Here is the input.
Amino acid sequence: MVTLGDYLFVSGLLFTLGFAGVLLRRNLIIIFMSLELMLNAANLSLVAFSRFRTNSLGQPNYDGQVFVFFIITVAAAEVAVGLAIIVALYRARRTTHVEDINSLKF
Amino acid sequence: MIPAPFLEIAVLTWGLILLMVDAFAGKTDRRGVAIAGILGLLVVLAASFFLTPPTPAAASGFWSFYTADPLAIFFKRFALVTTILVLVMAIDYAPAIRMGVPAANPHAGLGEFFTLPIFTCVGLMWMASAIDFVMIFVSLELVTMSFYVLVSFTRRNPATLEAGVKYLILSALSTGFLVYGITWIFGVTGETNLTQIGTVLATQEIDKIPLLFGIALVLVALGFKIAAVPFQIWVPDVYQGAPTPVTAFLSVGSKAAGFVVLLRVLTPFLMLPQVGRLLVGVAALTLIYGNFAALPQSNLKRLLAYSSIAHAGYLLIGVVTFSGAAVAYYLVAYLLMTLLCFAVLVVVGNSGGSDQIEDFAGLAKRSPFLAFAMLIGMISLAGVPFTAGFLGKFFIFDAAIRQHQTMLVVIGVITVGCGFYYYLKVVRAMYWLTPPADSQPVPLSALSRLTMTLLIAAIFVLGVYPQPILNALDQPAARATISMFR
Amino acid sequence: MTSLLPWIALLLPLASMFVILLATRSLRTLSAFISVAAVLGSFVCSCLIFFQQTSAAAAICWIDLAPLFSVPLGLTLDPLSRSMLFMVTGVGAVIHIYSLGYMSADAGKSRYFAGLSLFMFAMLGIVLANNFVMMFIFWELVGVSSYLLIGHWFERPAAAEAAKKAFITNRIGDFGFMLGILMVWTGTGSLVFTEIAAGMAKLTAHPSYLTAAALLVFCGAVGKSAQFPLHVWLPDAMEGPTPVSALIHAATMVAAGVYMLVRVGFLIDASSGALHVIAWIGTITAVLAALMATQQNDIKRILAYSTLSQLGYMVMAVGLASGQAAMFHLFTHAAFKALLFLGAGSIIYMLHHEQDIWRMGGLAKRLPITFLTFLVGTLALIGFPGFSGFFSKDAILALAYERSLPIFAFAAFTALLTAFYMTRLVVVAFFGDARSPHAARGAESPIVMTLPLILLSVPAAIGGFGFFARNFLSLPNETKPVVAVPVIALLALLIGVVSALLLYRNRTTEPVEIELFRNRFYFDELYTALIKSTQGLLAAIAAFIDRWILDGAIVRGLSGGTWGSGFLLRLLQVGNLQAYGFLFGLGIIGLIYFTVFH
Here is the structure.
């Protein structure tokens, strides 16, 4: 029997992996992918909460699942815009290495 | 009488129409688009004074995630005024856009630069009315995504793209935390509506640790938006790299909306003492960081970025004491003085080509009006009496003293002293340094001159007679809703 | 509509000032007429308010962040302020008309009338204010306009110095005033007079606090009404044009201190210690000023010291817990002192700015109207039976007799001196032979100047009679008429008049020289020496602290420290995106730790 705790644990793990990816990977596109991973971890956790938090009639709390759709939509829009910016950066600087973009400092 | 949701719909429709006009306009001067945008927003601003009063009992259906209480209406007007002023600045900034956007058509990109703030405005207006986490999330993302595009707009400028990428990554990171936090709050309480969360917290026995975890993560995202320590790290680079009108918009609009959402989100969690102590610590650190790090700056945009962190600190003192009227007044004062400074910066930066403080040397001799405008903006930011900035700080400190937040007041006063140094650094450059030999007066359009005059007048008038703003939050129809904000 | 009248009366002079300053600066006569029209308008409003007995005015809220902080702007219209309003605008209107003649040839006429309008606005604000903040703001404005008007002929160094002295001395008093206001606010939680009166119980529970607050509030009156020891500015203020001296330094501004004390009478009356101090300061001022007046030779200075002395009487009455007697004397004094000053102005104008009484003489025949009206004013001032001053001074003397015999003795002695020096003035200036070529050629002033004199002599003469004065203010209760008081007063009058007549008839130079009185008890010299020595010492100490401790250790240390930490903090922005993310993460961990586990 898979319990709520298991789902939450996996989702937490995914979230942490995503965050680690943002901090440690050097390619901008992979960083972006890790961000999406974080969002999806939250999606997983939302669906789990929705499924396991039943109301008095035994029905799942659908608010969580509806929220997941919103998140997916917004994530898609974000990717569209974000990738456009990364492509523009590549066109200008010929690199997607995150260490190369540090002219603005102090 | 107009129902409140029509305001955003009107603005959104107008934005779409202008975007279509821009797409099919060919080679005509896009400044017409900006003027049309300003006029449309002015109409909506006027319409916001003729809204149907909200019925307090109806909190179901649409009204369970959208509210039209006085706080919301006030910030809708705030967002509209900010956008109008940003569009005025954008008109002045058009030559830099033309240089920054790579395209054959000289008008490429200008139309979009003028219409994107309108969509951002819609997002800000929705954020002001959001009382459900889902609505908060969606409107916040609308604002953020419009800003992604706006910040990276002048692609030819390498600093802009770098700022854009940094903003993108860090903002998406904070969004991730926001969503995860909402998830945990939803998981613990089973609700996403803020008032219902409050009811659940008050009546039921809930698991404290996951709830606090959730609220901490949500505060991460809101802290990012309002540029509070330790989430302010993006501010200097992004503000410096973005086009100046966008910086102004970020500095004022995004921050104000963040504060509104912060106030609303914190309401159900007032009964938790950890949140209060946390905010005190964050406010203190923000004040210190913003003011101290601004001291050695020589780039005016970067200096204004650090100063906006510092002002977030003062506003956080207001949030700690939960005096909504003081926070609202401070935000209005902040709008006036920051937009004034940025308006001058746009004009001078365009003619000089850079944003360093040295370029302001001797401005008083070259363009006395611009120097005067910048002077008023700077002294208001510093908090000199008879300006709106002074009264803003006065109300905030008054609220803090009454709630015995002595440490915050002491730190606040010390940092005000710090602030005088770096604000007056600019004044000194303008009035006491000699201009370079080949300098000429800075050209200033009539519309910008009018805008700056109005801003200067407003700073002085509000510095002496603050009552209209303080009254705006106090309307009898919804007194119960916002009574806790007084 | 009636509730707007006081606002109109208040704002008309302000509007006039703005119009003059912004638009008609170069059109001198037009500026003058605008100012006169404005004050006449205010006077009409005051008459309407007075006869309609309006008692409530519209109030607006300036800052309202209740329950934190609330400052209303309201006007109060009780019998006291109504009559004061009537008097201020009435005397003001008369003096404005007079100024049309006196300042007709002056180059700075626009500036002068703008200053007069500003003064009227500020004075009316003091009269109408219903809370301490409003009163304080207008209090300061009155000081500013007084400064501007005293220094109207600023090219004269004496005038510039006098203006500065007036402002600074006032400022010292105002500092105490402000402290007193703060103490009252902290004690009762409100700044509105009616609310403070209602909440007096909170203050009476702490008597020493109340006394301190009352005395500090009195400081404001000490400065504004030139009581001892801050009396030194009033005689020097005579450097200003004579209508200014009449309006500001005789009738209205200096009376503002007394008005304020009566307005917050509930505060002062609650503390017997404060009352005691106030009464004695008033008495000391009255006596000292009268002594100094006996030896002055400048006609305006004599009148200035006389004003000081009469103000001392009013403050004495306040200290004897009768605001009514003080206000009665204030009204009569306003009429006859303004009359005397305008008369002096008439003389000065026609004698080409000759102000030394020993260079006048024989003017009774040459300036008949001026002489007659001046005589009326003098008789009122010295308390000749039947004239207004007799009744008001008698009321104060009766009070003193009843409450404190030593004060009564001093007051009676002062009455004697008053009769003495005023008779001296009249005899030397108006009788005898002309002692200078100007005096020999003097002629009567134009009608625009003599008409105000005639107008003012009416209230100066008959203003004291019960049936007339009762319309204006509540007269002090006549308990049991004591015969001794008027008898002693008349005796003092007679001795004073007769001795002056004997001493000064047919003299061409001053027969009696009392250096102490002539040099004003050396107060000015004392103050200058005091300021110089303490300032010198303080400056030396401050320089030492500044150079070594403040500049060296604290400022350089602090600024170095701040600069250093600023520099360090700036280094956090390394520019690398992932470093930012890392710092972000650290912040998140910290936030979660403090929220969840603390």
